[in-house]
Specification:
By secondary structure, this protein is an alpha+beta fold. The protein folds into two domains: about 1-130, no CATH class; about 135-170 and about 180-505, ADP-ribosylglycohydrolase fold (Orthogonal Bundle), CATH 1.10.4080. The chain contains 20 helices and eleven strands. A hairpin with a 5-residue loop joins strand 6 (about 125) and strand 7 (about 130). The protein is globular and about 85 Å long. The chain starts with a strand and ends with a strand.
């Protein structure tokens, strides 16, 4: 069966299907009145098959050319995404271009589906272009994180009373724009981009050499690149760089970079060992891209325990207290399960979070004598599980969001930031805007909690669900979406394949280390 047109304002599709498909999938959904209408349409089509007047033949040719289907060869149904609306009519009904009348349906990319249930994964842009759902999720994860970051960045160091006094009882809901008309991202989004560059650097190394280290180990190189964007005023000739992001001038802006990240990366850059006991949220706010690569490209056969450990180790590069890196393992688990279709509403998201938290103690740390997290850090594992349970319990109450979030914490630590993001995502699972505004309006690390919440709901609802007013002024949106596209696509070059197209040459420039 094929989607042939789309009605954006109420999310309904016009579907062409065979008679067999109609009897199997759609006729059982029809009430008595709609069933009579369907039988009338069948009768009309049969009459046309037996002998059509000249004007009807000419009209049917127009249908074929415009809709790319044969009118009388199919049954046609108007179907809502949730299947609550279903009725049949003649083929020309959706198109006001084809008859002397108006219809709210618009021509769109034709999309083949096997069952009506697949409609929940079909995403159409405003101009009728179909978006592959996993692509929409991947880009939604990064853009969603950046939106939450940019919205929260304006109020990061303000308490809730000050926020409410300035923006009203609902807090900040629209961007604070700079003098260029841009909503600025912070170090949270900057480092997320460099995480994406790191894991794609590792993936490309494997494709080009047939062997590669663990994905998180490549983030050390790209994180040092990020450090240099914060400390260099210009390029240093001959310097090794590991990320194409070093060629993006907008990333050389300092946006309140975390002290722990800066100190740890300076040590790495100097060839020294990192020593700290930081449980700040600077680890978990940047590791979402790892889930995209692990799920979309079958890293470690999508073994959640292994992939979660990789995400935790990426955070541990700079944050060495367990509550600074364990939250990354849980976030990675949540995102991979969402990508696997296990969370589409508040109830299923709660189950996903519970499953991720329950898996945490059994994850094996390769860098700690292959002991489990439960053996190594039982108290911290328990602390993280408890605060996540508290967040989900609060989300089921009618407690106002600022009050509920205050009882969880300020979000300055990794476990508090993740818990606040989970609270807002569960409480407002069906609305990207409501979830994000909930996550940033509190007396704490608003940009980080907004970024993590944006990663979660952006993955769950997709890029196309993010309102235009959150994307049209977003700083570096083109770079963020390009990274999302690369994470979705994965490496397109190989050791024995010629790099003979512009796309392949561009990939080699971006993800094979080079010197300026």
């Amino acid at each position: 069966m094929t989607i042939i047109s789309y009605r954006p304002y109420d999310d309904q599709f016009w579907i062409a299907c065979t008679q067999e498909e109609a009897e199997k999938w759609f006729v059982p959904l029809l009430d008595e009145q709609r069933l009579r209408q369907y039988l009338d349409v069948l009768k009309m089509n049969e009459e046309r098959k037996r002998g059509k007047p000249d004007w009807d033949a000419e009209y049917n040719q127009m249908i074929k050319e415009t809709m790319k289907v044969d009118e009388v060869a199919y049954a046609y149904f108007n179907v809502s995404r949730d299947l609550s609306v279903c009725y049949s009519d003649v083929a020309h009904h959706p198109f006001h271009q084809l008859w002397n009348g108006y219809s709210p349906f618009e021509y769109c990319d034709h999309v083949d589906i096997k069952t009506p249930d697949e409609l929940k994964h079909v995403r159409m842009t405003r101009d009728g272009k179909c978006i592959e759902w996993k692509y929409d999720q991947a880009v939604g994860c990064l853009v969603g994180g950046a939106v939450g970051d940019a919205l929260g960045y304006a109020v990061e160091f303000q308490n809730w009373r000050s926020i409410a006094a300035r923006y009203g009882e609902h807090g900040i809901t629209r961007y604070e724009l700079d003098n260029r008309g841009l909503a600025l991202i912070s170090d949270d989004t900057q480092m997320s981009l460099f995480t994406g560059a790191g894991v794609l650097l590792g993936m490309t190394r494997g494709f080009m050499r047939g062997i590669a280290g663990r994905l998180d180990t490549y983030c050390r190189y790209t994180y040092v690149d990020w450090l240099h964007t914060q400390e260099w005023r210009s390029r240093k000739k001959g310097e090794r760089v590991d990320s194409w992001l070093m060629d993006v001038p907008g990333l050389y802006s300092r946006r309140a970079p975390g002290t722990t990240c800066m100190t740890a990366l300076r040590a790495i850059d100097a060839g020294q060992k990192v020593h700290n006991n930081s449980c700040g949220c600077g680890g978990v706010m940047r590791t979402a891209p790892i889930a995209l690569v692990c799920y979309l490209h079958d890293y470690a056969q999508r073994d959640l325990a292994i992939c979660d450990m990789v995400a935790a180790e990426a955070a541990r590069i700079t944050h060495q207290h367990p509550l600074g890196f364990l939250p990354s393992a849980v976030l990675n688990d949540i995102l991979m399960q969402i990508l696997d279709g296990k969370a589409s509403c508040a109830e299923s998201l709660v189950s996903v979070v519970q499953d991720a938290a329950n898996r945490l103690p059994s994850i094996v740390s390769e860098d700690d004598e292959k002991k489990t997290y439960g053996e190594l850090w039982p108290h911290h594992v328990s602390t993280l599980q408890e605060i996540l349970r508290k967040a989900m319990d609060l989300a089921a109450t009618h407690t106002p969001d600022p009050e509920a979030i205050e009882s969880i914490g300020g979000g300055w630590t990794g476990h508090e930031a993740l818990a606040i993001a989970v609270y807002s995502a569960v409480k407002h699972a069906d609305s990207f805007e409501d979830a994000i505004t909930s996550a940033v309006n509190h007396s704490g690390d608003s940009d980080s909690t907004g970024a993590i919440c944006g990663n979660i709901v952006g993955t769950m609802l997709g890029r196309n669900a993010i309102p235009v007013h959150y994307t049209e002024n977003l700083e570096l949106l083109d770079i963020i979406e390009e990274m999302g596209n690369d994470l979705y696509t994965g490496c397109i070059i190989g050791e024995f394949d010629p790099i003979d197209t512009p796309e392949k040459r561009r990939w080699a420039e971006k993800y094979c280390h080079h010197h300026w």
